[in-house]
Design a protein that fits this description.
The complex is a heterotrimer. Chain A is mainly alpha-helical. Chain A is 71% helix and 0% strand. Chain B is mainly alpha-helical. The chains are: A mainly alpha, B mainly alpha, C alpha/beta. Chains in contact: A-B, A-C, B-C. Chain A: It holds the Pfam family BPD_transp_1.
Chain lengths: 316, 277, 416
């Protein structure tokens, strides 16, 4: 709170004269209050982001002097690099599984919990993964999913199924990671939906009952779903961003393997930038990543908002 | 009452909830059981590990002696707290100014915040890393904390929260001679308390679990955070093969955060609800 | 507690000695499990040299990671003073100018009289300059579960020395049922294991002039085909090495290929659950060789006082005394011939035959080939990924080898 030192102490004391502050004073205060954040925003987010943009057109390498401008070579390399294409595919697959599942499941749980007598108990159980240390729990998952000795395979064999190699099989590894991702996000989304549900006025449900939508799915579609639209947008964007930036489970459990089947974009970025020191190339990856996530978030927001408006109009 | 009720639908809904809840809790259960089971018996073909007293003593003993786990946790705690306090101290005044004060540059700042919201947090890390390296700040609390003290998400959240705050109250406060700064701290902060709680949970979860950044800037074991420490222990000789000790470490690292959040759960939900009005 | 003890120790030391300038050495090593050797060596060294204080950085998870961390740290001017670098990654550090020759230090000492043979020193020599002292050496050996081998009808005293019989026996172990697998040839985190297979058929990774790759010849072909047979005929499960190691230590796997440096770790993890033994690797050709795993102690500091202290430390860690800590606690072979005398390790090998297997393989040990250029780590990853593809059956050996060839060529420096 170094901020307080920048402002004359006298201005802090309530003025008994009861003088209304003119616009100029307000402008001044606005600037003072927002200066620290503005400077840091420029220094730590926007400035570096612009720098990364420029670096993406160079052959910069960590620890080696001499940077050359190489045009769009990093981008063309990216487009022709099978490794990068694979990491895009893996990420898309991960996101495609995690986003709908984590949102749908979170919503289902929230709706069911809201009317349950054991709400607190359920809520606690579902919230547990949110608060857990992911690295520690990922290790527990790894043991549970052990290709031959783990709980999951012991159970499968008891049930007469053949064992699955989960994290060791390139065909299943990304799904195993996605399952862990869903496991971690459901509770978070549930909490957000629960908060949304509690703001829906009871009268709407009463009105719906009068309209004949007195139970089940009808009621849900007529009242709950449209009313949850703003929360759903928020949840969706948050989930997309978090799914796109999956890193911990990959770094701890698979390091991108087997056979690059779990090398997601952020992990590739980390490897290129901090392991292979190709700063220019890593920058190109992150710029593309930014464009991609932004595009997807915008589309998603548009779609959800239109849907929400449409539903809301249709529903009332 | 969101859905209508019948006894069959109630049974189905409980079945769904219970199944999900078991999946949610199971890894914790397994972790606790394994942390109490001798290393040699964890993978002995039985469905679940069977705890024994000496297994528990062995595993927790190893976890606490092989690596400075308590130190890692203390580091994680200091880092999370420092990040959180700075984030809030910087975001509240800015959020207030953006919501309630008209000043030159406000529209640009707002655009900057929205843009910042879209920049994935990993993007600026390369230049920041180089800057930290050049200034000799790697392997320090500063390296762990500094890049995160500006949270555009927090600014945005608080701004949204403040926008709906009644102007009359602010005008009254101004008439009483409050400065804008004291309005921010003495009126807006308490009013924003639910949003602060919600944001704190976002922030603490993110930074307690973060592995990416500590992995990049920390090599000195004395500076490791809990997540990095566990990831490190996992590869260490006594952790690599020793699932029992690793799980004991996991329990120790997970316990404080889980208990804290279970306590705060109610406030968290309330914060989100109020934040939406 | 530890802090209290340290403060007390420091107090006692301060009281006991006249004020003396203390030299601090910062030491960095790979493989966290090697703490069991580095700590005691440092403690003993500091007891003899109270004016030098050794501190450690967090160990790197592998040789490759260690080098990458060093390169990052060099940017920040935060290099450690001493590092134990993997034989395969000494070269990139030299190329980047992070480590300087120690020829001047060596010239002042009479190393030959102190048990350092020219053959061993050559492991740390690049283009005529010596860059450090080899600290530990190993070759890949076969760890096996003698109980399972016996059950499968094999003779635990005579593990087959040719691949056909070996793979057949592993297949029999895998057929025992009850979740048992035959063997696991560990690829590991670098290209050591892949190089080992190529060398096992008398091949090399690149030609002697390093102008082109050589692993695509008959030896390489034989290597990838054999690796496929491990899985099809030898009952090797296609799982990651973490999981496989757990399988082996739980008594559910017959044979496990790994560095001899893990003997002590394996014995500790297995205890008396089953009879663990080691054997020489089967050989695919008369002129088979093996890459020497292990590390070189190098000095990274330029500060004259620190450099002198670091030299003392490096000499100590490779002395008979240091080596008698290294060998029993890991499984590595000593790099100092004097360590084999009766005051040190002479009796040890008699009592621990599992340790001796690697020594028997030394006539075939060669330097671990280090790739020219900046992409050695990534080349290692390419090789590992293609080998994994063979293991999983998603690529035929020939196709995987062809892909290795084209991908590795693209990563090698373009000289011609």
């Amino acid at each position: 709170m170094a901020l307080a030192n920048d402002i004359p102490l006298s201005s802090l004391a309530p003025n008994t004269a009861g003088r209304y502050r003119p616009a100029r004073a307000q402008a001044q205060a606005g600037i003072i209050l927002s200066v620290p954040a503005t400077l840091l925003l420029v220094a730590l987010v926007i400035g570096p982001a612009i720098l990364v943009f420029f670096l993406s057109f160079t052959n910069a390498s960590l620890g080696l002097a001499g940077i050359q401008f190489i045009g769009v070579a990093n981008y063309t390399r990216m487009l022709t690099d099978p490794g990068f294409a694979q990491s895009l595919r893996n990420t898309a697959l991960y996101v495609a599984v995690v986003v709908p599942t984590a949102i749908g499941w979170g919503l289902l749980v929230a709706v069911l919990i809201a009317r349950s007598r054991f709400a607190v108990l359920y809520r606690t159980a579902y919230f547990l993964p949110v608060a857990a240390s992911l690295v520690a729990l990922a290790t527990a998952w790894e043991a549970i999913l052990h290709p031959s000795l783990g709980f999951a395979n012991t159970l499968l064999q008891l049930l007469g199924a053949s064992p699955v190699r989960f994290l060791s099989d390139p065909a299943t590894a990304i799904y195993a990671l996605a399952a862990i991702g869903v496991w971690q996000l459901v509770g978070f989304n549930m909490i957000l939906f629960l908060a949304g549900l509690s703001t829906i006025p009871e009268e709407l449900y009463e009105a719906a009952t009068i309209d004949g939508a007195d139970r089940g799915l009808k009621r849900f579609l007529l009242v709950t779903w449209p009313m949850l639209a703003p929360v759903t947008v928020f949840v969706t964007v948050m989930t997309i961003i978090r799914a796109f930036s999956v890193f911990e489970t990959v770094a701890v459990l698979t390091q991108g393997g087997p056979m690059k089947s779990t090398s997601v974009v952020l992990y590739t970025f980390y490897e290129e930038g901090f392991r292979f020191f190709r700063v220019g190339y890593a920058s190109a990856i992150s710029v593309s990543f930014f464009v991609f996530v932004t595009f997807l978030s915008l589309v998603q927001m548009r779609v959800s908002e239109r849907r929400a408006r449409w539903k809301a109009n249709g529903g009332q | 009452m969101i859905l209508g009720q019948s006894s069959s639908s109630r049974i189905v809904s409980h079945a769904v909830l219970v199944t999900g809840a078991i999946i949610m809790v199971f890894p914790f259960l397994w972790m606790i059981l394994a942390s109490l089971t001798p290393q040699s018996e964890i993978f002995d073909g039985s469905l679940l590990p069977t705890p024994t007293l000496h297994g528990a003593i062995d595993n927790y003993g190893t976890a606490l002696s092989a690596i400075p786990l308590l130190r890692f946790m203390a580091n994680g705690f200091v880092v999370c707290l420092a990040i959180l306090v700075l984030q809030i101290a910087i975001a509240i005044p800015c959020g207030y100014a953006l919501a309630k004060l008209s000043f030159p540059g406000r529209p640009i700042l707002l655009v900057g915040v929205l843009l910042g919201l879209l920049v994935p947090v990993q993007i600026p890390t390369i230049p920041i890393y180089i800057a930290l390296a050049k200034s000799g700040l790697l392997d320090s609390y500063a390296a762990l904390v500094l890049p995160w003290i500006i949270s555009v998400f927090a600014i945005f959240l608080f701004r949204q929260f403040f926008v709906t705050f009644p102007d009359e109250v602010l005008d009254a406060a101004r008439l009483d001679g409050f400065s804008e700064l004291s309005i921010a701290w003495r009126i807006m902060l308490p009013a924003a308390w639910p949003a602060v709680v919600s944001f704190s949970i976002f922030s603490i979860v993110a930074h307690w679990n973060d592995l990416y950044w500590p992995m990049v800037v920390i090599t000195n074991p004395d500076m490791m955070t809990a997540s990095l420490g566990i990831a490190y222990f996992r590869q260490a000789g006594e952790g690599a093969g020793n699932v029992g000790a690793l799980m004991a470490g996991g329990v120790l690292v997970t316990a404080p955060l889980v208990s804290f959040f279970l306590l705060m759960q109610k406030h968290f939900i309330r914060g989100l609800v109020l934040g939406r009005h | 507690m530890k802090t209290v003890a340290m403060i007390l120790a420091a107090g006692v030391a301060a009281a006991a000695m006249p004020a003396q300038a203390e030299t601090k050495l910062n030491v960095y090593y790979a493989w966290p499990e090697h703490e069991v050797i580095h700590k005691p060596i440092a403690d003993r060294f500091m007891a003899d040299h109270p004016e030098i204080k050794i501190s450690f950085r967090a160990a790197a998870p592998s040789y490759d990671e260690a080098v990458q961390t060093l390169i990052r740290q060099s940017m920040a001017g935060e290099l450690p003073d001493v590092h134990y670098v993997g034989f395969n990654v000494l070269r990139p550090l030299v190329t980047r100018g992070l480590v300087k020759p120690i020829d001047d230090l060596v010239a002042a000492d009479h190393l030959a009289d102190k048990g350092y043979t020219e053959q061993i020193l050559s492991l740390a020599r690049i283009e005529g300059h010596l860059y450090g002292l080899p600290f530990a050496m190993s070759t890949p050996v076969v760890y096996y579960n003698a109980d399972l081998v016996k059950q499968a009808g094999g003779d635990p005293d005579k593990v087959p020395t040719d691949w056909d019989s070996f793979v057949a026996l592993a297949g029999k172990v895998g057929a025992l049922g009850n979740g048992t697998s035959g063997m696991y040839y560990q690829l590991g985190s670098d290209d050591w294991a892949t190089q080992n297979l190529v060398r096992n058929f008398g091949g090399q990774m690149m030609n002697d002039k390093e102008s082109d790759i050589a692993f695509d010849g008959p030896a390489g072909q034989a290597a990838v085909k054999l690796f496929k047979r491990f899985h099809t005929d030898g009952a090797q499960p296609a799982i990651d090495s973490h999981a496989a190691r757990q399988l082996f230590t739980s008594g559910k796997l017959g044979f496990f290929f790994a560095s001899a440096g893990s003997v002590s770790g394996f014995e500790g993890e297995i205890g008396d659950r089953f009879k663990l033994r080691t054997a020489k690797q089967p050989l695919g050709a008369e002129d088979a060789t093996m890459p020497t795993g292990g590390m070189v102690a190098i000095i990274l500091t330029d500060d004259p006082a620190k450099r002198a202290a670091a030299w003392d430390y490096v000499k100590f860690t490779t002395s008979p005394e240091g080596q008698s800590i290294v060998v029993p606690n890991t499984g590595y072979m000593p790099t100092n011939t004097l360590a084999l005398d009766k005051d040190h390790l002479a009796g040890f090998y008699d009592k621990h035959p599992n340790w001796y297997t690697s020594v028997l393989q030394t006539p075939r040990a060669r330097p671990w080939f280090s790739w020219p250029g900046d992409n050695g780590v990534q080349i290692g990853e390419v090789l590992r990924d293609e080998m994994t593809a063979i293991a999983l059956g998603s690529k035929e050996p020939e196709a995987a080898l062809a892909d290795m060839v084209s991908e590795v060529r693209a990563l090698l420096p373009k000289t011609n």
